[in-house]
Design a protein that fits this description.
The chain is of the alpha+beta class. It contains nine helices and 14 strands. The longest helix is centred in the middle third of the chain and has 19 residues.
């Protein structure tokens, strides 16, 4: 009997890329293969040359359909099978291969905000809820809107076999978090994008939207981030403390470049308040949530482990973030010499230029 494969990909929407998907019916015994789509409708091509290619890179059980159905995460290619300009996964795969000997691993803490009718979910139609304080990891009553969606999403991720590690309510009412990891630089991106898709798809059934904005509500309200935990085998090994400090120092050599590529609206979120460091300054410290890089207290005690980059936004592209961290830390470790900070440079995914192919 045929089964359904939901092909998922990242579009070319600006300033923040979104997710698209469509269903393919596949014959029993066959595996999902390359497929195509209209790039002119996703800001990834022009109408005069609109074909783009979907290449499956990760599959898992579809927890929302039948037992044989699957979800298929895809990367976007040009018709000549080269990576599309919006394909940030290709760079992450390149860095993962180049620095494979370091065995880099990631865990990402994905924050987000539920919205309904243009307001954070559960907020009064007029005015504001009670001040922040009781919502973080809270329980009970009307102050915890969205828990039913969170539970459904968690169950779906587990059934799909994704590396979800936990969930919790966040500091602002209507704001939640889930964590994915510990995975390599490419796999963590694949699985985070699928987990994001599942959350948006499940929220549909509750007539609720998922808002990934870095600062969904202006004023004295917490922003939404994607704190990124990172380690290499040297950092995890006995005596890894020196490698952790070296990694922090390396991140400081390119801190502006990282900030420019850690998501849209980052300057609104990294203000120095609400458990953030100022976007224009770099710092690291033990157990300090007001620093750019936090070294967990347990890591400082054990003198081995990982670091937490607290700067990435909720709307960041995990492929971009993991590629940058691996390149920055591992290139310095490979050279074993200090490097000067490169000028800030933003990685921007652009639409592919129109290209005419003569019929043969």
């Amino acid at each position: 009997m045929p089964y359904r494969a939901e092909y998922i990909w990242i579009d070319g929407a600006e300033p923040t890329h979104g997710l698209r998907s469509k269903t393919r019916i596949i014959a029993d015994g066959k595996k999902p293969d390359i497929w195509g789509f209209d790039g002119s409708s996703t800001n990834q091509a022009t109408g005069s040359f609109s074909d783009c290619v979907l290449r499956p890179v990760f599959t898992c059980t579809d927890p929302l359909r039948g037992p044989k159905d699957i979800l298929v995460m895809c990367e976007v290619l040009n018709p000549d099978m080269t990576p599309h300009p919006t394909n940030t996964r290709a760079r992450a795969a390149e860095m993962a291969k180049k620095y494979a000997s370091f065995e880099p691993m990631f865990g990402i803490e994905q924050e987000y905000t539920f919205y309904q009718d243009g307001r954070p979910y559960g907020w009064p139609d007029v005015g504001f809820p009670a001040a922040q304080g009781p919502y973080y990891c809270g329980v009970g009553g009307a102050k915890m809107p969205g828990r039913d969606i969170v539970e459904a999403h968690t169950s779906a991720c587990l059934e799909a076999g994704l590396g979800i590690e936990g969930t919790n309510a966040e500091v602002m009412m209507g704001q939640w978090e889930f964590q994915v990891g510990v995975l390599d630089p490419v796999a963590v991106g694949d699985q985070l994008w699928v987990a994001r898709w599942l959350l948006e798809r499940i929220a549909e059934d509750f007539e609720v939207d998922v808002n990934w904005d870095a600062k969904p509500m202006k004023g004295d309200w917490n922003g939404a981030g994607a704190h990124t935990n990172f380690s290499t085998k040297q950092m995890r090994a006995v005596g890894g403390w020196d490698h952790i400090i070296a990694a922090c120092e390396a991140m400081g050599t390119r801190y502006l470049e990282h900030v420019e590529n850690y998501g849209v609206g980052i300057k609104d979120r990294l203000t120095g308040a609400h458990e953030t460091a100022p976007w224009s300054k770099f710092s690291y410290g033990v157990s300090d949530r007001g620093s750019s890089i936090r070294i967990p207290g347990g890591v400082a005690r054990d003198k081995r482990g990982y670091l937490e980059d607290r700067r990435p936004n909720a709307n960041m592209d995990p492929y971009v973030v993991t590629a940058m961290i691996v390149e920055t830390v591992c290139s310095v470790a490979s050279a074993k010499t200090p490097v000067k900070r490169a000028p800030a440079k933003k990685v921007v995914a652009k639409r592919a230029p129109a290209k005419k192919v003569a019929a043969k």
